[in-house]
Predict the structure.
Amino acid sequence: MNTPSNLRYTKEHEWIRVEGDVAYVGITDYAQSELGEIVFLDINTEGETLAQNEVFGSVEAVKTVSDLNMPVAGEVLEINEAINDQPELVNNDPYGEGWMIKISVANPDELDTLLDAEGYQAYVG
């Protein structure tokens, strides 16, 4: 399982990567492998400001549908349009081309409530 050390993680299996005043959010390698083949993403929260842990969309796999939760509060600035046409990007490259949303972080202190790579690996076993 790939768990990059430069990211923070939620117990709901989202990751966040902060780059300056924006952050990218997606699901972890563990999550995509547990879900199986991802066939559809329903994310329509662009322009909305959401609280930490609030649902920003859903991911549909062959086996199930799962909610996607905000790792930290912020405004959804952009949705990765590439995953609409190619949802398999989330399976193939969850930390790169398979990112889901770009946000502005409302409260940087919330990042400290998330797991680091070591903590996430211990959490998922």
